[in-house]
């Protein structure tokens, strides 16, 4: 099986991790896997299982290797001849520390206290030490009409340290803890920090998750970051700080050799600015005499205060003012600090996309400089997580409930950063290349045809332009993605709490999305754009699609969901504030939205999130999703077959396939068996009584409140189609097909088949059911049904999707482009169902009757 680079090859030796799917029955858990480069040379590889098929064969494997970028592609093979691995990555544990030795660096990690990284050494030389997480809390009050703010420093306090993975090539250390003030009072801001180490490399990758557990009216977080000390040697003129800017390097020393009498110091000044070590001899005495009278600049900082602006400043010490050096647009987010014989580079991923961020060094001329990477820069205003209003706007602004549950306590945010340690001064090009790798991390991926052939991620199609009609449809899919890719940049959907999400509904009068109108603002996974993007990546292999899907996964799985507290396992419906809607539901947090990223990258934080939602149905004991319509006297709670129970199925499938815990398979099967016995099977309900303690559905009538369009719009069909294939349950497949067929029946036919109970008004927005209708047409081999399914997608009056997609240029407060009719609900569902339908009923586009029917109803 062939692997290729998603983006670019590493410019030097680097650790890489990735995931690979396998067909059912293809890979036995006792099989060995080997890796070769394009020349057939064996490469050492570390393998582990990530998921299993029901027959016990391996479904997904995770892999790690240390690669030098000499090959454009690699071959992963099943091979029972064990590879030789003469050297290993050491991870030794004592009661107080964990010692990691990659062969290039040795790292001591503390298991208690506030300092996480005790030190990093190359040989016997300490390159860095005292690495710890830091934060600032801002309190606000008014005294006699005067606003008083107070900043309180917080530091990390370790609760637990675990070796999550200990292998020959890769080890992962998980550190959990809280921030607390220096006086050891109430803990605030829990965190999880993972450190990744690869054999024979001198880098550390870190993934940091911040949890908010404060009171948004009192706990304004002024800064969150990580600092470490870097011992430096050499004179101030050989102490250097370099930042990656928009494209290249901005470099300055602690003390300039430039003076009014020695403008280039015989070429030494230019070398100094290039970051090179300068050697001065007796012949340079006059230059040195003058240069030593220059100011010594101890502190440097680059701050990204918006998605379009950063500035670099410096000062001599904290008692004097900052002096502006320069400004730019979008910094690449890497800082190098070094002395005469060693240095450290820190890179923060999505530096400008997740502003306000900054990189800072203090005490550059001292024995030990302090480097700080700020995920939220103290130069910006403090985080303000209060809701936008004191009341809800259900009728006018499409907010979910009159209840105001705009609570950020329990949400999270994950950042990624990289450290690289040097004993020789790196060139500027080396730092730029390292920065590029930081911003677009190295990843090996399979060809789309391979992902497709394994049938490991549900039902989706490969691109097919074999006919004019199919080519036209593929063009529209491309246009839809390209519009959102450009719109993210045009509308500046960036920032620490926003990056990765898109908006819900457009306002063509204001030429602006409805950012301020209740439930029409941020999308928050509504109608599953995540799945649309991941299917688009799987079928295309495009890096830009992966980048957008990755950002959406990071955001929606962290910011839009609750990781502890009353709503643990649930997420917030779309709103002006990401956590603002009173609807807290499992559809927002379900595993099927996020598992793509875990399987493709092996990311342990995402694995945590998949585990976190396995029992999300328990949250219904505290918060009934149907509380507006039904009281709980008869049942402990209620659940719609979709999106609630469908989301639970997605969660249970994820847990079962990853852990082989049969308890979660039984929950799925139990629900399916309950539905099989009901009068209308999957068409029953759609709302049921629900017992979260036993995960049991209780029939309470048919055609009740809940809406069948809710069953099909939130990723339920994708989860159910995947489950049907995995379980090989023909009756369950028939139930899905019957549901899809029923949705497109005439009102008279619906009434006839349901004894007058189910009717058209219960089945709104039929385009949302086009994927289910396609499933029915494919299973029943029914061309007329396929014709109806395609009509749902390609008839604008039904789909509400204006085709062909046309972007208009508008002159308003500035020149912009827009699609006046655009909504993300319609676009994501149209694209998702079209991708599914191309797989299930694409062949019917060749049918003459279907063609004629489609041509009579579409404009594209």
Radius of gyration: 29 Å
- The span between the termini is 39 Å
Work out the strand percent.
25-35%
User: Main β-sheet, in a few words?
Assistant: 20 strands, antiparallel
Q: What's the CATH architecture name of the domain at 454-855? A: Alpha/alpha barrel
Total helical segments? 22
CATH topology group of the domain at 454-855: Glycosyltransferase
CATH C-level category of the domain at 454-855: Mainly Alpha
Residue windows where pLDDT falls under 50 for at least 5 positions:
none
- What is the percent of helical residues? 25-40%
Number of extended strands: 37
Net shape: globular
What does this molecule look like?
The chain is of the alpha+beta class. The protein is 27% helix and 28% strand. Strand 29 and strand 30 (512-513) form a beta hairpin. The longest helix has 23 residues, at 468-490. The model has no long low-confidence stretch (mean pLDDT 95).
Walk me through the topology.
Elements: E1 2-5, E2 14-21, E3 33-37, E4 42-43, E5 46-52, E6 58-67, E7 73-78, E8 90-93, E9 97-101, E10 106-110, E11 117-122, E12 125-143, E13 146-166, E14 170-181, E15 188-198, E16 203-211, E17 220-231, E18 240-244, E19 249-253, H1 268-273, H2 285-291, E20 299-306, E21 309-315, E22 323-328, E23 334-338, E24 343-348, E25 357-362, E26 368-376, H3 394-397, E27 412-422, H4 428-439, E28 444-446, H5 448-454, H6 468-490, E29 506-507, E30 512-513, H7 529-540, H8 543-558, E31 571-572, E32 584-585, H9 586-589, H10 595-601, H11 604-612, E33 637-640, H12 641-659, H13 662-676, E34 687-691, E35 696-698, H14 709-712, H15 716-727, H16 730-743, H17 747-753, H18 770-780, H19 783-794, H20 796-799, E36 808-811, E37 815-818, H21 824-841, H22 848-855
Antiparallel strand pairs: 1-7, 1-28, 2-6, 3-4, 3-7, 5-6, 8-9, 9-10, 10-11, 11-12, 12-13, 12-17, 13-14, 14-15, 15-16, 16-27, 17-26, 18-19, 18-23, 20-21, 20-25, 21-22, 23-24, 24-27, 25-26, 29-30, 31-32, 33-34, 34-35, 36-37
Helix pairs in contact: 5-7, 6-21, 7-8, 7-21, 12-13, 12-15, 15-16, 16-18, 18-19, 18-21, 19-21, 19-22
């Amino acid at each position: 099986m062939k692997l290729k680079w998603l983006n670019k090859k590493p410019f030097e030796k680097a650790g890489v991790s990735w995931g690979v799917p396998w067909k059912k029955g293809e890979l036995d858990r006792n099989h060995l896997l080997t890796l070769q480069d394009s020349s057939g040379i064996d490469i050492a590889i570390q393998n582990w299982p990530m998921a299993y098929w029901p027959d016990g064969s391996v479904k997904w494997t995770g892999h790690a290797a240390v690669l030098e970028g000499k090959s454009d592609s690699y071959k992963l093979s099943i091979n029972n001849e064990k590879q030789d691995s003469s050297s290993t990555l050491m991870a030794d544990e004592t009661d107080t520390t964990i010692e990691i030795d990659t062969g290039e660096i040795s790292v001591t990690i503390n298991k208690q206290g506030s300092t996480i990284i005790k030190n990093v050494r190359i040989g016997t030389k300490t390159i860095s030490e005292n690495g710890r997480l830091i934060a600032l809390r801002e309190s606000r009050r008014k005294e006699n009409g005067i606003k008083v703010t107070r900043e309180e420093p917080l530091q990390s306090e370790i609760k637990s340290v675990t070796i999550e993975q200990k292998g020959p090539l890769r080890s992962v250390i998980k550190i959990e803890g809280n921030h607390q003030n220096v006086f050891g009072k109430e803990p605030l801001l829990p965190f999880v920090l993972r450190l990744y180490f690869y054999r024979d490399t001198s880098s550390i990758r870190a993934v940091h998750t911040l949890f908010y557990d404060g009171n948004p009216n009192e706990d304004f977080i002024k800064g969150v970051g990580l600092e470490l000390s870097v011992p430096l040697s050499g004179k101030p003129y050989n102490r250097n700080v370099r930042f990656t800017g928009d494209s290249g390097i901005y470099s300055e020393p602690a003390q300039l050799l430039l003076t009014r009498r020695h403008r280039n110091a015989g070429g030494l000044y230019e070398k100094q600015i290039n970051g090179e070590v300068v050697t001065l001899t007796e012949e340079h005495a006059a230059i040195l005499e003058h240069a030593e009278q220059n100011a010594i600049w101890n502190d440097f900082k680059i701050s990204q205060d918006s998605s379009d602006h950063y500035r670099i400043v410096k000062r001599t010490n904290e008692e004097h003012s900052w002096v502006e050096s320069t400004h730019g647009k979008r910094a690449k987010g890497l800082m190098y600090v070094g002395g005469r014989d060693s240095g450290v580079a820190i890179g923060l991923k999505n530096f400008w996309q997740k502003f306000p961020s900054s990189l800072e060094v203090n005490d550059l001329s001292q024995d030990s400089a302090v480097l700080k990477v700020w995920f939220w820069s103290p130069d910006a205003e403090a985080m303000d997580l209060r809701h936008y209003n004191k009341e809800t706007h259900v009728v006018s602004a499409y907010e979910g409930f009159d209840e105001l549950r705009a609570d950020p306590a329990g949400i999270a945010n994950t950042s990624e950063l990289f450290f690289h340690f040097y004993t020789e001064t790196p060139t500027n090009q080396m730092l730029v290349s390292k920065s590029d790798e930081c911003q677009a991390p190295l990843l090996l991926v399979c060809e789309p045809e391979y992902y497709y052939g394994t049938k490991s991620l549900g039902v989706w199609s490969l691109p097919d332009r074999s006919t004019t009609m199919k080519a036209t449809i593929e063009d529209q899919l491309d246009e839809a993605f390209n519009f959102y890719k450009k719109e993210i940049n045009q509308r500046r959907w960036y920032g620490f709490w926003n990056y990765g999400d898109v908006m819900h509904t457009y306002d063509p009068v204001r030429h602006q999305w409805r950012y301020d109108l209740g439930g029409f603002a941020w999308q928050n996974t509504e109608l599953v754009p995540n799945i649309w993007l991941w299917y688009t990546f799987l079928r295309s292999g495009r890096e830009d699609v992966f980048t957008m899907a990755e950002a959406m996964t990071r955001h929606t799985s962290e910011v839009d969901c609750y990781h502890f507290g009353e709503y643990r396992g649930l997420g917030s419906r779309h709103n002006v504030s990401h956590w603002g809607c009173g609807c807290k539901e499992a559809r927002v947090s379900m595993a099927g939205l996020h598992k793509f990223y875990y399987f493709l990258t092996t990311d342990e934080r995402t694995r945590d999130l998949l585990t976190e939602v396995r029992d999300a149905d328990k949250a219904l004991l505290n918060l009934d999703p149907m509380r507006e319509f039904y009281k709980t006297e008869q049942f402990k709670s209620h659940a719609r077959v979709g999106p609630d129970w469908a989301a639970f199925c997605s969660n249970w499938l994820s847990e079962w396939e990853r852990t082989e815990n049969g308890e979660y398979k039984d929950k799925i099967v139990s629900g399916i068996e309950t539905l099989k016995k009901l009068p209308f099977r999957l068409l029953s309900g759609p709302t049921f009584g629900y017992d979260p303690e036993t995960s049991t559905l209780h029939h309470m009538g048919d055609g009740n409140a809940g809406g069948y369009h809710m069953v099909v719009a939130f990723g339920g069909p994708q989860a159910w189609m995947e489950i049907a294939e995995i379980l090989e349950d023909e009756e369950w497949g028939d139930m899905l097909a019957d549901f899809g067929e029923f949705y497109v029946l005439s009102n008279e036919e619906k009434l006839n088949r349901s004894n007058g109970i189910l009717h058209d008004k219960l089945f709104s927005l039929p385009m949302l059911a086009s994927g289910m209708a396609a499933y029915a047409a494919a299973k029943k081999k029914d061309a007329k049904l396929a014709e109806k399914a395609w009509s749902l997608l390609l008839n604008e009056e039904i789909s509400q999707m204006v085709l062909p997609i046309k972007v208009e240029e508008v002159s308003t407060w500035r020149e912009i482009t827009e699609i006046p009719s655009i909504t993300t609900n319609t676009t994501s569902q149209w694209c998702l169902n079209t991708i599914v339908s191309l797989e299930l009923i694409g062949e019917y586009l060749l049918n003459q009757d279907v063609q004629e029917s489609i041509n009579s109803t579409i404009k594209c």
